[in-house]
């Protein structure tokens, strides 16, 4: 990610934080805008052209999206195109990120991180589903409809919108990669870090509370736990937050012991 894009993302996130009236409709409109820009090389080129005056890019947004979207959506899109992006793909990613973050804001009580993670595990455990959703063949809208049917009654509207929208416009990205990035963005928007915990058995509520408290104290930020049950770890836990891995599993200790005995 180039420095221009990094600064642009910071500006658009700040604009979202300051915006009022951010609801699920705004998130839905932002996802639709990202698809429209992604589907038109002419439009994406015009909006990402840093050599063109910012006012000209804002006028394009007003002409293309203004009449069809809510004022909050139009304002966020205007902020996005006024920034300098490293390339057109980064602009599309930036609008998409705004959409994910807007969905996180729309209902702070929805457990969107956990729902997206659960769906990613469902995909990981079902190769046929992953192939169906990730294949370049097939209608993208039909794939989104499939996701909506799978999550109906099992996830919030916010999580369903995010998953269906991302899978509808994968842009050469793998399904689990899309869901993982979205989970982290939702957590970040809510001021949390995501910890992936691998354990031999499901954690009890008390264990989850103790681990959450310990990780929050260690990292100085609220932590959201996503748990993967894997009997091969035997006992103990393996925890990953970003690039930091804490491996206290029995399998890891046994592997270390075998290595020492062999050496």
Provide an overview of this structure:
With 263 residues, this protein is of the alpha+beta class. The protein is 65% helix and 10% strand. The chain is built from 13 helices and four strands. The chain has helices at residues 3-18, 24-39, 41-48, 54-64, 71-82, 88-106, 112-124, 127-134, 140-151, 157-168, 175-189, 205-219, 250-262; strands at 192-199, 222-229, 237-241, 244-247. The chain has a four-stranded mixed beta sheet, with helices on both faces. The mean pLDDT is 91.
Summarize the structure.
With 263 residues, this protein is of the alpha+beta class. Helix content is 65%, strand content 10%. Strands 2-1-3-4 form a four-stranded mixed beta sheet, sandwiched between helices.
Give the topology, please.
Blueprint (H helix, E strand, L loop, with lengths): L2 H16 L5 H16 L1 H8 L5 H11 L6 H12 L5 H19 L5 H13 L2 H8 L5 H12 L5 H12 L6 H15 L2 E8 L5 H15 L2 E8 L7 E5 L2 E4 L2 H13 L1
Parallel strand pairs: 1-2
Antiparallel strand pairs: 1-3, 3-4
